[in-house]
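User: For documentation purposes, I need each entry recorded in a consistent format: the amino acid sequence on its own, followed directly by the corresponding structure tokens. There are two entries in this batch. Please keep commentary to a minimum and don't merge the entries.

Assistant: Recorded as requested. Entry 1:
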Amino acid sequence: MKVKNILVSQPKPADFEKSPYSELSRKFNVNIDFEKFISIEGISAKEFRMNKQSLNGHTAVILTSRHAVDHFFRIAKELRYEIPPSMKYFCISEATAYYLQKYIQYRKRKTFFGKQKFADLMDVIRKHPEEKFFVPSSDIHKQAMFDMLDKEKINYSRGIIYKTVAANLSHVDINSYDLLVFFSPAGIESLKQNFPDFEQGEKLIGAFGPTTTKAVKDAGLRLDIAAPTKTAPSMTMAIEQYLEKEAKERRRRSRNK
């Protein structure tokens, strides 16, 4: 099957021309569209309280994304909780730390950050055993992060302040695509909700990460392209390898005619 149209279940890169997807499109003459399959909704202050969660008593907050930053300050405002000036912020990356300037005056003495992975941030967190951390998260979050905190006996409490829901994809003609690419189990769930009669047939499905791979199989779908692998650490590289293999197979069949 020749792949002509690809749908990636993520927002379009800000600078598409400089992204790996642009190179992929040019090299194999394929059309690549982007569509958010999931959206983020904030948990209300009422629901936050009903879940017996609280911001009180924490001296530090762990922020793993811009969503976490936005919703932490949103829920604090809705709860009428005045964040103390002494609050310390531990961010997954320097970019996330700088994003804090949207809400606070950035000060190095109370802002700390890792290199991008949570394991790197843990190296920083370990140096502050006296803090009581609040960890804003979604209803769907990687358990590995909390396992690391538990292993190090970090004093923290998790607060679910936003949730992942299926986006409205009624405008998408799912049958016009030859390859669908997913990056989270929530994306697969969105596919099922938006297209309950979806039948894969010859359509290809690509998935990034073990949990997404499992979600594809659990949904009764066929997984055709998986990443990361030793030879394809990124999704675009895995797609490129598949398309190259497909092109070679077409040339071989053409010679044998």
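Entry 2:
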Amino acid sequence: MNGIKRTTNNQEYVGIQVGDHMTIRLADSKFKRELPLYLMLLPGSILVLIYSYGPMAGIVMAFQKFVPVRGFLGSEWVGLKNFEYIFTMPDIFQVLWNTIYIAVMKIVAGLVVPIVFALMLNEVKNKAVKRGIQTMVYLPHFLSWVILGGILVDILSPSYGIVNQFIQAVGLKPVFFLGDNRVFPFTMVVTDVWKNFGFNTIVYLASLTGINPELYESAIIDGAGRWKQTWHITLPGMLPIIVLTSVLSLGNVLNAGFDQIFIMYSPQVYRSGDIIDTMVYRVGFVNAQYSVSAALGLFKSLVSFVMIVISYRLADKLANYKIF
């Protein structure tokens, strides 16, 4: 049985030969063959259109003096005045610094900790113990910050929190983790890493499975210990995925974590914990300055877009990674 494909006048024909007989029929179009795949994409595409592209109509507020009762069509157009006003706000540069400072620390810690943990977990030979550890460290990722925020507020309380009770037990003064401007940014970074490092470890554990075991066998024959095997085989084997995740994380340089900080911060730590997203919330929903809030959000989105473009260019150059 042989199959023959020919294209004539943009029509694809398929010839199927069985013994001495040949049957020729018009091949199904590419769209018809792939129709089930398009139908599978349809629900997700509809959700993206409704919740991601639909709200983008509100961008026009950034260029208006928006008044809710007048709507988009009746509000006065002011051009770039809202953007000019943003950079005259007294705390804007402190907020920008807080956003970048916290986001960069989260990016760095979010890369280093999962890599180290994946290397350590890879050394555990007992499968039951390994799976138990994986389950425990993955669990916080699936809990929302609403739940974890309430738990952490109690744990980190300066009066009755278990962490400060331990600190006092060793003779040190209690630390106001959520009320001290010097400590608050680091508290956000540590708690964010604690929540997500277990889930992020999956990527690096998957890269470890792709390393040829024969390399380790050869290293053992040459007398290399575990440290030298890790340094000369494991880390180079993980390097492509490390470079890729590092480069792609540049797009999050202005995403310091709204839900986490909004739940856990207070006015006394605005100086070190207020970020662009929380400022957008306060300006828009608390102060009802909708146009300024939209302009601030659009400014953040434009910067993030530029960083994402740069990150994908670097991913293509350094890790040969492309989406399109």
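Summary note for entry 2:
The chain has 14 helices and five strands.
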